[in-house]
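>> received
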Amino acid sequence: MADLHFYFDPVCPFCWLTSKWVRIVAQRRAYEVEWRFISLRRVNAHIDYDAHFPPEYEAGHTAGLRLLRMCARTRAEHGPAAVARLYEGLGARIFDSDPAEDNGAGRERRGTAPFVAPVLAAAGLPADLADALDDATWDAVVQAETDEALALTGRDVGTPILHFRPPDGLAFFGPVISRLPTGDDAERLWDHVIGLASFPGFAELKRSLRELPQLRALGVADGEAGAVQEWHAGSRRLKVP
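>> returned
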């Protein structure tokens, strides 16, 4: 049984940075992580994107849903370990590469077959898994796990969602981090988070100001601090509904 369920959307930069931290800790502590799905497009299905989000958000979140369709098919045909490799490759291609065009067209491209082809090849997975990008029959799987994640935390959250010691442990949105801890620092942060998650009745520790994540694709190099931004409900909403 997994020590942690990590619910991810491949297009969330904070989710990617937290996943890198979790992989470091999992390797050092010999933990088992199960990578599960949560779609920001489905979480925000009731939101008018044009009225509430920056213009590139809908294309980005839709690309995330398309990538999760491919992840769902990958798990069904090749198992959970393949999803771990696939998410690692997708995150690296999206966020650990040089800055790309950050507009609707650029974000939409993340959910296309040409974009995912080298990721599938590097992960040792069949190229035809990209066919699932357009296959809405996988949406039921993605929706079910999105609902599963939100049932653990409530709906006023973003990604990632971490479920500690499933099935009976607590789950939280976050931790949201903008810089990647390594080595002993990574383990110290883990122990602090586990301490909070294990305290009976603990619900939330939050601030809406965030640094832009320390990711190459966002123009923030290692050792630099990103610009501070205001976030609402796990996103850069222009207004709260």
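>> The beta strands are 4-8, 33-37, 161-164, 171-173, 209-211, 228-230.
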